[in-house]
Please model this.
Amino acid sequence: MGRPTPLLVLATALLAAVTQIGASQESTTVGGYGELHYTNTSGPNTPASVNFRRFVLYLSHSFDDRLTFRSELEVEDAKIEGGEAGGEVALEQAFLDYRLTDRLTLRTGLVLPPTGIINETHEPPTFNGVERPAFDHDVIPTTWRELGIGIWGTLPLAEGLSYRLYLVNGLKASGFSGEEGIRGGRQSGREATFANPSFTGRLEWARPGLRVGGSFWYGGSSAGDTLLASGTFVVPVTMLSADARYDRAGFAARGVLGTISVSDADTINALYGAAVGSRIAGGYIEAGYNLLYRLAPRSKQMLTAFARYEHFDTHAEVPAGTPRNPEFARRITTLGLTYKPTWNTAFKGDYEVRRTAAGGGLGDVETLRFGVGYQF
Amino acid sequence: MLAMQAAAPPAKVAASVRRIFGGEATTSLSVVGSDTVLRVARNDSLLGFAVVRSVKGKDQPITFLVAIDSADRLRDIDILVYREPYGGEVAYESWRRQFRGKSATDTLEVGRQIRSISGATISVNAVTMGVRRALADLTAWHRDGMIR
Model:
């Protein structure tokens, strides 16, 4: 490579001067996403319902070229009222990013553990189906956020390789359950105990049409309850997950696998009277095709027909003394359509068939759903 | 996805021009409206033009360079500064190379001629739109003799 000529140096210096205007100005960005659902489940005494499921305001502010605040404030189920169940107003995420170099940014605040696909990328137009996959509720407990500090960026080893690594507060074992695994143990930034600092991270590789990633979570969950155990990494929860997204010529597919081990589930169950599995595991795979890709080659709109199959068990393994509940071994098939007039709006309809290993139990239901989602 | 003003370090602009047009290239500047266009030549023969612009990603400007050759075909693009948490893959060679050889009359649509990157949808759409506009502007200015 030749040395830059003096003229080139002069020219670029001048160009920089021209484009510098306004570079370090502070700026604020407002955005948001939301989704409303119509749900009709089979069986007696399950009338159809409509719900403004999520209304989220995105607010970010750049203090300069390197320091940015980002946040999402969420209203769930449209309304909360004192003394009544349901509804929630919550910070979904809120953190400061300080970009040290192109490869390394520091992050601190209420952050999203980078596990699976949906937890970080949860705007309704980004996924098929009215509801998020059930796996992303009962196994990976989205939207999962905890307080902490970490780093993220890209790795020079290969083009497309990126990472995130956070130190955050731990889970709270007293909230774990048989049916929903670790979901109830999230602290979500609300006066959280820091008795069990935990690590979570992700390694990801992406190129056009393909993104694959692996994530982990490791940390104790005693939450300072000495009846359970004393120490920092006691009652450990370990999560490993892998995910992939692929698309080409109108075809798109994605899948996630995850396994969570709750080492001292027996102690948790004895102390709190719960039925937590010692292993929670499963996954899903989904494929879709944009029908307009060939029918209307000039159209920017998308009409995607998709099918998703989920298979997971929050009682994949149970500790001695806890009977295995076959209702927690779920197989869920969802067929549906997603119509996207623009890339950031979606009209959805789907039909879900849910079966459990119990066979013919209360968990065997069919659900028809319609939904609208947007982001901007 | 608004156009935004943001700076690129001069060294990055220089390195980008050298990478795209070779180390022997010399540049001169002309101002067209609010844009500064780099004219790139080697020994008096025109190699092409380049312009630096920014588009808005989710909340940050993405600063990029678009270069065309003397026949108004897109030579290459470069992402000069990427400031967002998700979507930095638009800077990768495997995505950028899809634009090479395109001209202002080509359709550049995400999901069609330009492959998307899942998890980087906002950046992919923003940069594609920015490149399309820059390519159209450079081509029109060149055709109209505003840059020569």
User: Anything to note?
Assistant: The beta strands of chain B are 3-4, 26-32, 35-42, 45-56, 61-69, 74-81. Chain B touches chain A through 51 residues (CB under 8 Å).
